[in-house]
Amino acid sequence: MQRLVATSKALNGTPCEQPIAPNAVPTNSHTTSDQIYCPPVSTVLVPLLKNKQMAMGKKKFNMDPKKGIEYLIENKLLCRNEEDIAKFLYKGEGLNKTAIGDYLGERDPMNIRILQSFVELQEFSDLNLVQALRQFLWSFRLPGEAQKIDRMMEAFATRYCQCNQNVFQSTDTCYVLSFAIIMLNTSLHNPNVKEKPTLERFNKMNRGINNGGDLPQELLRNLYESIRNEPFKIPEDDGNDLTHTFFNPDREGWLSKLGGRVKTWKRRWFILTDNCLYYFEYTTDKEPRGIIPLENLYVKEADDSRKSNCFELYCPNKSKGNTIKACKTDTDGRVVEGNHQSYRISAPSREERDEWIKSIRASITRDPFYDLVATRKKKITNKKLAKMEDHSASCE
């Protein structure tokens, strides 16, 4: 009974009586030294609860950034303003950097303001462009969607020029050169690229981007040497675990696939993400049975006498007998190359077939960097032409 009383008092934050020895003489009063203060349980449990909610919020963010942020706001762990959310993302403890990149790249007005606050937390003063890019690209993982990349690199270029006002004549110059550096990094350090770009080629690639003029040769040489000597480090979230790749797929669902050598139909769970089509035997599998990179492929509706609602993935130069570059796990667990000149796939309904075709077509894109750079270079050229026309008009 005494223990119950002591526990009850502790729960209510009142002083707890010290245990009385069996042979002690009871007294009617206690001095302050005879009492131990037991704090309210709330002062102990609330921080534990908040820590648990924060861990849950980070887990939710890594699976679905919007839901994770909303959960943290609802539990009063974040304020609903861009500065607080940006600081949370910039600190990044326990956050998947792919999820950070996807969230920062969203076109929602609030996300754009968060991106602005996020880049303002970055300090680029007295850093050359490669050093600033190393810092920036380590704080998240650059998404694959062209519009997201454009918004994020635009924000980076603006911030870099704010911190280093006398380096470039415009943010467009910084933007184009940043992409040139990223592409140079890929070309120099990707083992699949056999012909490595030279300094001369890098210089030629960046002619006329400084408001129509050329950048200093020494600047370009220093940037080139920096990338050649040390490639960018790309954030890795989960080592070799592919699970995070499938958190936010573009599309997923059950489809039937026609075999390559043995022409039988097998039901597989398909996931479309990161410009690849993955298929699994079961939805609970962590490793895919096969991977089909969508680069340079086409998709179309297809008729099949044995299956309805079919579509087909194929190479444009299919007539040459080339097989699609893909891989799969064999029955004995070995990873082998695929044996398809085309992939015939059947959806459960016509509507689902049309949606899959639409989603796959949206994923079959060329490297967005080149299109973004070409657009920005055209903008610089147009500015130069406009200035020349204005000058000619003023001289008449």
Automatic annotation (TrEMBL):
SUPFAM superfamilies in the record: PH domain-like, Sec7 domain
GO terms for biological process, alphabetical: regulation of ARF protein signal transduction
Main subcellular localisation: membrane
Membrane topology: Peripheral membrane protein
Domain PH: 248-365
Keywords: Cell membrane, Coiled coil, Guanine-nucleotide releasing factor, Lipid-binding, Membrane
GO molecular function: guanyl-nucleotide exchange factor activity; lipid binding
Subcellular location field: Cell membrane
GO cellular component: plasma membrane
Lineage top rank: taxon: Eukaryota
Protein name: Cytohesin-3-like
Organism (species): Callorhinchus milii
Record gene name: LOC103191022
